[in-house]
Amino acid sequence: MKIAILNCLKANEVCAGAACLTAFNGKSRNFERYGDTPTELTAFARCNGCGAGIDGGFKEKLDRIIDEGTEVCHLGVCTKDFRTKEECPTITAAADYLSEHGVQIVRGTH
Ligand code: SF4
Hints:
By secondary structure, this protein is an alpha/beta fold.
């Protein structure tokens, strides 16, 4: 199963990606669903920051995720407002784009 992880650049200021990768490598938390199915990480990407939207560079990254044959993309912490937990519209648009190109979306990594 080819899997990508897409995260919020703002969250990345304090995030080494370790918890996502620990969950991916150990098939725990939101990766538990894959059981004995072999998994391969195709991409570990971030958005291009608040205000950038789906700019040319971000679209390039999304297209690369698709071109790599990614079957599922897990969204990490992608909330516009950490208090309300409302999903950032840029990430929603990115998820919709991936979904339209056949990539299944799972909200959550760990
Ligand atoms: S655009 Fe959204 S996902 Fe990207 S850094 Fe800003 S809040 Fe995070």
